[in-house]
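Thread: iron/sulfur cluster complex, take 2
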Amino acid sequence: MSQPNELFRDSISTITKEGARNWIFAKKPFGKFYNARTVVSWLYLLVFFTLPCIKIHDEPLFLFNLLERKFILFGVIFWPQDFFVFALGMLTFMVFIVLFTVVFGRLFCGWVCPQTIFMEMVFRKIEYLIDGEAEKQKRLKAMPWNTEKILKRSGKFLAFFAVSFLIANYFLAYIIGMDNVLLYVKEGIIAHLGTFIPLIIFTSVFFFVYWWFREQACLIVCPYGRLQGVMLDPNSIVVAYDHVRGEPRGKIDRHSAENKGDCIDCFDCVRVCPTGIDIRNGTQLECVNCTACIDACDAIMTKVHRPTALIRYASENNIRKGEKLQITFRSAAYSVVLLVLIGVLVTLLATRKDIQTTVMRAQGMLYQEQPNNQLSNLYNIKLINKTRKNIPIQLKLETDGLHGEIKQVGNAVEVQPESVGDGVFFVYVDKADLKTRKTKIEIGVYSGVRKIDQVTTSFMSN
Ligand code: SF4
Ligand code: SF4
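Output below.
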């Protein structure tokens, strides 16, 4: 059976005994960490709302157009054929996140996760502005529907919906580009109903998350949060309560000779927690490392003239044994994997070609006899132009010891910017040079005098 102070293990703070939602009224934090996070959130929001407006060579700096399968990162266009580069980039990012978490815990969640930024730094601030502090929010929720409640609720509803609509528009801009969003706005809802309906669905999802779902997104939905148990170890730096210094906790009693720890059991760290937990129970899945409890406890420690940092960024080993940050085998192994992945990714990006060529022998045809003791094979060529300029193409046969030529069928191939072009061509080879039934041939792809690609294919003879 659980001990009284172990009861937290049997329940979660956001659900009542009856299984209903226990609404969290988090007290507004203040202090140096909250100020720093506010500055970070301003920068974050500035970047979020500015990026879709930045263009390079008339193309967005970033675009994640899943519908047209077009991705632009830092102005570089990635095609479906580059998907392995994209996938490797994602894998590298994930290993980076895992390594970062092993060493620095959930720093990402507290400082730059979009859910935390928008919930704590945008919507929660609007809520404090309209509904007031936590105590006022509780009173407002409990009061019957009177003029004050109707005005505040409708004001909050409108503000939350407007911000959700704005965020949804910017998300859309990341998908279809800001130019298209502005064009759709200009041309009106009726002309773009197919886009407007998903936009309203996205707006409603954002609204639902920030109006009602809130911390549940971190507790129930976020896979990263659920993985904390396997990523953190006693050397990971997390927001932690110094139980060595704080325990045994107790109210200040100047008449008692009992030797108490520094925690005065004021519960301020619990009152500010947006997920409703008591960090003094140790590292918990629900903790998003938002630092609000650090600020709350520092303010209390300052008031009672005790050293601050009773709750601080620290590892379990730091608190228990006084150890500094250690490089463990696990973090070293992740670092090596990360370095290898970064190396491969950089190499792939550096060697990525402007044009990608695929040559296939035409189906159902082996070879054709030609005058001058030559044989010919027919080929199809497909070219993907990943640049923003027209590329006229010429082909040359470049196999040592093989005499022959390439004759394009129809007009010379010219691939439009960011497009796929195709064509058909014959390769003529002197019979005397063909020693086997299937001969490997090299074809150089040129644009003017510049060689831009090389492909290998086979030539069939008798
Ligand atoms: S325990 Fe502290 S850091 Fe963790 S979520 Fe609560 S207030 Fe934030
Ligand atoms: S705010 Fe500090 S002193 Fe107050 S209960 Fe939390 S840990 Fe203890």
